[in-house]
Design brief:
This is Phosphohydrolase. This protein is mainly alpha-helical. It is built from eleven helices and no strands.
């Protein structure tokens, strides 16, 4: 019961914080990540579902894109965690999961717990498939990035600076990041969930280029 209350309180806080966001980090994104993470936890029968749910709900709170800077985002997460009645160990664990799972921050670095692996998988699943396609263009549009521009070269390796400057297009983002995510997943359950999402993106890109190149039927 206590745990249910804490989850409800966290949910209310996150809804209020992210409600207005239109960059693909809205409440519904968070809710999908929470549900996928709990599903993976359940199928794999591993990880603490309470920690997973808290970390999934809070994972975008410190995101630099939603805060004035990285420090104020960190501060926001910390103050919220201080305000709920959970053990210090649980607070530290949730904080650590959120610190390590981001694509940029977490890229290549070992995750410290199965809970972190599961929340990261759930967040990555929401960046691929039909939802991933929608989010890529919503984000690109918000950044003023074109849908596609064939004169921009697709590059496998982009520096963090270049990535932040968004020298890219919505379509480029698939080659720079989205198509690679399936091979970076941690759990078998997420890998299975990624299959149809990957097919969806591949079909989409194939059709996109056919239309771009003037297919008439
Ligand atoms: P997450 O919420 O998974 O941590 P990000 O914060 O990196 O992901 O981005 C949010 C959404 O916007 C994701 O679906 C991501 O693929 C998309 N996105 C991020 N950067 C770009 C970009 N340069 N162009 C198009 N889409 C992007
Ligand atoms: Ni996210």
């Amino acid at each position: 019961m206590m745990k249910d209350n804490i989850i409800q309180q966290t949910e209310d806080y996150v809804r209020q914080q992210l409600g207005e966001d239109a960059t693909g980090h809205d409440w519904f994104h968070v809710d999908r990540v929470r549900r996928s993470a709990l599903h993976i936890c359940n199928v794999e029968q591993s990880g603490d579902p309470f920690i997973i749910e808290l970390a999934a709900l809070l994972h975008d709170i410190p995101d630099e894109k939603l805060n004035e800077n990285a420090e104020s985002g960190q501060q926001k997460l910390e103050s919220f965690l201080q305000s709920i009645p959970i053990s210090n160990k649980a607070k530290e664990h949730v904080q650590q999961i959120i610190d390590t799972i981001s694509y940029k921050g977490g890229n290549g670095c070992e995750l410290a717990s199965v809970e972190a692996e599961i929340v990261q998988d759930a967040d990555r699943l929401d960046a691929i498939g039909a939802i991933g396609i929608a989010r890529a263009f919503a984000y690109g549009g918000k950044k003023g990035q074109p849908i596609y521009n064939p004169t921009i070269q697709v590059r496998e390796e982009m520096s963090l600076e270049e990535y932040r400057k968004g020298k890219s297009t919505g379509i480029h983002h698939f080659y720079e990041k989205l198509l690679k995510l399936k091979d970076l997943l941690n759990t078998e359950t997420a890998r299975k969930m990624a299959e149809s999402r990957q097919n969806m993106m591949e079909t989409f890109l194939e059709q996109f280029f056919q239309e771009w190149n003037g297919k008439t039927i």
